[in-house]
Amino acid sequence: MDFRIFFSPVPTGETTYLGWLLTGLRTTVALSLASWVLALPLGTVLGILRTVPNRGLRAFAGAYVELFRNVPLLVQLFIWYFVVPEIVPGGQRFKQIDPFTGLFLTSFACLGLFTAARVCEIVRTGIESLPPGQENAGLALGFTLPQTYRHVLLPMAARLVVPPLTSEMLNIVKNSAVCSTLGLFELTAQGRQLVDYTAHAYESFTAVTVLYLLVNPAIQLVMRAVESRARVPGYLGSRN
Amino acid sequence: MYEFDWSSIPGALPFLWQGMKISLGITGVAVAAGIAWGTVLAVMRLSPARPVSLFATLYVSLFRSVPLVMVLLWFFLIVPSLLRDVLGLSHATDLRLASAMVAFALFEAAYYSEIMRAGIQSVSKGQRSAALALGMTPLQAMWHVVLPQAFRNMVPLLLTQAIILFQDTSLVYVSALADFFGAAYKVGDRDGRLVEMLLFAGAVYFVLCSAASWGVRVLRRRALA
Q1: 3-state secondary structure chain B
Q2: Residue A235 covered by a domain
Q3: Mean pLDDT of chain B
C-alpha cells in the first residue's frame, strides 16, 4: 500500500489524483441531492395518492410503484440513456448536448424517479400506520378530505417517516454508484479511472470506500437533528 | 418516429437463457449462503460476548454503507488472486462467476442478518426461557426453539430480499460477465438493436419480479389467515 500516489499529479497536470476523487465525490453528492429533491415531493404525492379513497388515483400510484420497483435500477438507467432519447419525440436533440450534462441529467431522472417509488411506499406506510380514528375524527369535525390530510394526517405521518427517509437518503448515495456504469464520473468511476492510470487498485478502492463511509455519518448527523425536532410528544423516544 | 425491429430477439433466446442461468445461479447461491451466514451474524450480534457482537455489528454496518458496485469491484479484484494462490489455478481460469457469487453472498448476508435479527427479536422471550428451563444450552435453545420460529416469521421478508437480490445481480455488468442483462446488452450492441433488447430485458425482469412479489403477497396473506 502506498498512499502517496494520491498526491502525485494526474497526466494532464491540472490536479492530483486526490483531486480526481474529490471531484467524483462532488458529483456523487450533487447527483444524490438533485435526485432527492425530485424524489421527495413526487414520492410524497404518490404516497398520499395510494391512501385516498379514489380507486383510479390509488391504482395509478400503485402501478407506478410496481413498474419502478420490479425493474433493476441498472436496466432503468440504460433505458433512460439508450432508449428514451430514441423513442421520445425531440429526443434526438438531447444527444447533442454536452456529454457530462447529458449523463448527469439521465442519472438524475433515473435515480429521482426510482427513489420516488420507494419514498411513496414509506409515506404510504406512515399514513396507514396512523389509527383510522384520526381520519374519521377529522372528517367528523367537518374537515374536507384534503383538509384532513393537510391538518391531521400529514403532520403526524411526516414525523413518523423521518427515520425510514434517512435510510432512503443513504440508499440514494449508494445507488448513485450504479451511474458509473454509463461513464458518469462520480466517485466510483473516478476510483476506477485511478486504477487504470496508476495501477494502484487497493489504494484507490480503499480511498473510495472510505469516502463513501464518511458520507453516511454526515447524513445521519443532519437527520438526527431533524428527527429530534420532529418527534411527536408522548410517543416512544420523545423527550417531552 | 423510431421504427422498432424485434427480429433479433428469437435467434438470441438461447444465449439470453444462458445469461438467465447465470443470474439465477448467482441469486440461488447468494440467497442460500447469505441466509446461512446472515443468521450466524444475527446470532453473533445478539450475543452477550462483546467482541463477538462488535464484530457482527461492524461487518453489517460496513457492508450496508458501501455501494454494491464498489463491493463487486473489490471482490473482482481480490477473490481471483486469492483463489488462484490457494487452489493453484492458472491465470486463464475465469473466476468472475465465483467472485460474483462470493461477493453477493457476503454482501447480502449483511441485509439478511438484519432481517433475521428482527425475526429473532419477534419470538417471545418466554420461548427461550422455557427452553433454558428444560435444560437446553443457550445455543440449543436458539437452534431448536427460537430460530425455527424466527425463520418462519420472516419468510416473506427473506423472499422479498431474494427478489431485490435477483435484480441486483444485473450489476455484475461491471465485470462484463454475461448474466441475463449483460447478454441482452451484448446482443443489442452487436445487432444495433439496443432499444429493443433493453426494453425486452426490462420487460422480462418486470414480469418475473412482479410475479414473484405477487407470490410473496399471497403467501403472506395465507400466513395471516
Answers
A1: CCCCCCCHHHHHHHHHHHHHHHHHHHHHHHHHHHHHHHHHHHHHHCCCCHHHHHHHHHHHHHHHHCCHHHHHHHHHHHHHHHHHHHHCCCCCCCCHHHHHHHHHHHHHHHHHHHHHHHHHHHCCHHHHHHHHHCCCCHHHHHHHHHHHHHHHHHHHHHHHHHHHHHHHHHHHHHHCCCCHHHHHHHHHHHHCCHHHHHHHHHHHHHHHHHHHHHHHHHHHHHHHC
A2: no
A3: 92
Residues of B in contact with A87 (CB under 8 A): 2, 195
Q: pLDDT tens-digit profile of A62-121?
A: 999 999 999 999 999 999 999 999 888 877 787 788 888 999 999 999 999 999 999 999
Residue B3 lies in a domain: no
B88 domain residue, yes or no: yes
Give me the domain span that covers residue B47: 9-224
Residue B192 lies in a domain: yes
Q: Structurally, how many domains does chain B consist of? A: 1
Give how many domains chain A has, as a whole number. 1
CATH number where B213 lies: 1.10.3720.10
Q: Is residue A236 included in any domain, yes or no? A: no
Q: Is A74 contained in some domain?
A: yes
For the segment B155-173, what is each residue's pLDDT rounded down to a tens digit? 999 999 999 999 999 999 9
Interchain CB distance below 8 Å, B67 and A212: yes
pLDDT digits (tens, 9 = 90+) for B192-207: 999 999 999 999 999 9
A240: in domain: no
Residue A12, min C-alpha distance to chain B (Å): 26
**Is A71 in Cβ contact with B209 (below 8 Å)?**
yes
* Residue A236: pLDDT band with limits 50, 70, 90: low
Q: Which residues of B touch A208 (CB under 8 A)?
A: 70
